[in-house]
Amino acid sequence: MLLLKRIWIYKVIVFSLVVFALASCKTNYAIITIENMQHAEDELSPDIQSITLMNRSMNNQFANYREDSLQMYFYRNGYQLSKVVLDSLAADTTIRALAELMFESGRYDVVIPVERNFHRNISYELLPDTLNSDQVNEICRNFNTDALMVLERFYVKTMADFTEQRYMDSSNGQVNSYNATLDLKYSAHFRIYKPGAKTLVKEIAVTDTIYWESDDYTLERLFGKLPSVKKAIISAGIKAALDVDSKLSPTWISERRGYFLFSAKNDPGQQFMNKNDYEQAEKYWADLAKSKNKKIRSKAEYNLALISELNGDLNKAIEYGVKSYYSQYRFQTETYLKRLEARKKALENKK
User: What is the pTM of this model?
Assistant: First the structure.
């Protein structure tokens, strides 16, 4: 009985210590979420911030097909057709969608001229020669941009298929079942030019397939589940833009960060951070970083490392992190330093 009582007392003590530790962490440490940039595979060099976006993919084989007419053409062929459809609206949608995506990334400013289509006199499947330096220089000068990006080739191969099956049902007699598929293989080739003697900077080609399928017992419901051929081709242009943007534009990743509090209630640093007033938070913690108490100094230096990261100065963040590490060791400081070093290395690899 005495042993059981001792065990119960021991559990109460342990539970109290855990609760106290959690309460202390909650009181002395605050968590924030920050957005860090993840650089893209083919992201352009930092000296290219603004881009003129133009189109050299369309010749006289392209047309802005009417949605109903194009759909009827496929129906009249039994919806069993494999054909390259050169739709000018789809090509232009690729340009406009890409411009919006690149601008929304926050990395690029994009200009689309009103007169954005180059004259093209070769077949759609051929890749034209690169633009000469005089053309590139003039366009970038006229629109005050760092680079010129051109859709050099674009086409969509549309493959439709339709099948019908008949079988006997015990209650309904003969039943018809229909299946239809719509596959679109798109191909887009971009070149990026920069003013100067050597103008060609990068080439990006994307090719993929998007696919729809429908099954039903009536033709009306069957085709009601599928997009029209026109809408599907435009979707292919948007998908091509998404593919190119994923190679050029950075993405933003949410990451959790923390900072130390120095007051159980109404901590000044936390109040400044809640207002996004990093300047005042930095001044407050900089004063505390002068403390002779190594525990206080270490926490303040850790917080200053966070402020430096938020301000985009990774070198200064690492410098403060190292100071905090040596003022008083904490595992979280070591972990934070590793994160900062990884971010710095990733940025340097993109230069």
Answer: 0.74
